[in-house]
Amino acid sequence: MTVTVSAAEARTRLLRGEVTGGLHFRGKLDLSGEKTLTSLPEGLCGDVLDISDTGVHTLPETLQVGELVARNLPITRLPAGVRVQFRLTLDGCTRLTELPTGLTVGSLSLQDALSLEALPEGLDVCFLNLSRCDALRGWPQQGRVRYGHLSVRDCLSLRELPAWLTQIAQLDVSGCRGITALPAGLRVNGWLDVAGSGLTALPAGQPIPLRWRGVRVDARVAFQPGTLTGAEVLAEPNTEVRRVMMERMGYERFLTEVGAEVLDRDRDAGGERTLVRVPLPDDEPFVAVSVACPSTARQYVLRVPPTIRTAHAASAWLAGFDDPSQYQPAIEA
Known about the structure:
Layout: E1 3-6, H1 7-16, E2 23-30, E3 44-50, E4 64-69, E5 83-89, E6 107-109, E7 123-129, E8 143-151, E9 167-172, E10 187-193, E11 210-212, E12 215-217, H2 219-223, H3 230-235, H4 239-249, H5 251-258, E13 261-268, E14 271-278, E15 286-292, E16 299-304, H6 311-318
Parallel strand pairs: 1-2, 2-3, 3-4, 4-5, 5-6, 6-7, 7-8, 8-9, 9-10, 10-11
Antiparallel strand pairs: 11-12, 13-14, 14-15, 15-16
Helix pairs in contact: 4-5
């Protein structure tokens, strides 16, 4: 027999170990952070269940909820009998390796599921977040992401998107260097984030709005940074777009073209250091330190806070020192 209680009453009973049969709860049952909670009873069902950061290491086969939030759990699999109607969040479940065939849910988030190598056959979702799933290498033969949002941000092992992905609202492939093309039949209706991906152009005939780590940019900024000029960067009124343009152009070329003001110059164990400054309209000034790598002699330009006034203080800040006087390296590696 299943007993129906409030979420508060269900929480009390579960933490006291008083649940021996089916239990239906109303509202949000928040058990997050309860490290002594290591399991859930069979027959548990209800609206919203949050068991994040608990000691739960397996989920009951008969669990049925509208929303399940289960971040940072030591679980290795999602049982086939678990039913989640609207939203399933398994972010940070670093040991998770298995999801059930035919998994169907409105929104599925698997961010930082570092051990997950494959998605289940027949996966059916509207929103799918796979950000930083480092081990993920491929896709099921059959699946659906229905017109919603797909994020594969920083999935370093991925080399392609599935052929069955045909229409989606938003797509984030930022950081996926191995993805060099989109599926031939894919239509992106909203936006495409391409920052740090292997994409070098948009598919022919598809004027998809582009983003670079969330900032709206045009195709020239995304795919032809060598054509940008320092004057264009300074003339850009949007501060976020301007910062992306500087990054794409390269700080060293930008500073050379705009004639940066030298604030300080000195030498340390690694060689010469130069602190430079460029005023920016309607934004804090761009301040950076130029240093050489002692091993390769390659020059690096690294941005630092605009309040820094010496090259030594800039190097100290980059090394993690709040007090520059404590930064006294004998040798630079």
